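Friendly challenge for the regulars: who can give me the structure tokens for this chain first? No prize, just bragging rights.
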Amino acid sequence: MKTKIIISFLIFAGLFISCSKDNEPNPKDIDTTKEYIISLGFSGEITEEYTPLSNNKTSSFVGGNKVKSQNNVSTVSGNDLYGIQVYRGTTPFAYGLFDDVSNIKINLLSGNKYKFVVSVVKDGKNKICSDSKGLAYYKPFDTRGSNPIKLSNKFEYNNYYFFQSLDKGRSCFKGYSYYYYPLTDRYYGELSDYEPTNDGSLSIELKHVVFGLKYTISGITDGSVRFICKNKDVTFFDNSGIVSNFESEPQIRTFENVYDSWLYADNYTENVTVQVIWTRDVGVVQDLGSKVVQVKRNAMNVIRVKLGADDGSSTFGITTDSDVAMGSEEITVPLQK
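First reply, four minutes later:
Bragging rights claimed.
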């Protein structure tokens, strides 16, 4: 009898041990994903002491205004808006709209590669249209359905809502007016294939995705001059009644194709068309013709119109005042007779 009991006990114990082993998790099935806290910072042209647009290496542009800079870092204004979109692989992962960049942090998971897209509008809180409460901002900081995104200074982890216009120039200004090539000072940058391995920080390089534009007119001997400058359907200048030497106020405009102006930043240019019409005192209207000229990224492009009593000798050219690394050039072409 005792022998039967012992045998039964041994059989039961063996079955118990076997079942216990079967219930143990497979090491391959254990989730080893870790979460890391990453701090974000920015570098590149947004941190340079000078901007070629100012033609003054001791100043920088903040919202289109020159502000003295003493420390190799461009002035950061509490009115600047930073839109940041994060992708995990190709899927939207998180987004956030910030006006305080002193402590931007995001939680990322190990074993994944992330892409960051950043677009900055200087003085954006005064430029870009917001909702009735002033808490959320429209294009270029809009999400699907053209809905505004709230300024929260934190990331929202969401794969359905995401920024859809960070790489485009079109912007919504106060009064819900939309503009191509808007009068905004803008920066853009991307960082791809970032794989976190521990808590740390990363820096995203930003490029200035704008061009400066101004013009001067000299040599008016009588009558008045009309000056027109445009890109397709977007008019940059259309000024008439100019009767003496004239210099326009400079404009800072964002390229419509923000992405390409960032991707090909070193040599990016676009064409503008310039037209000059001279109405003489004798009542004769001289259309001195139109010319296509190139404007450079991150440079103040100065179009110089030179006139004379004899319209055959009248010319206009473009001078690009730019960073030393880019060089400067002047192209003078004769007007059509």
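The helical segments are 2-23, 124-127, 258-263. Residues 35-208 form one domain. Your move, everyone else.
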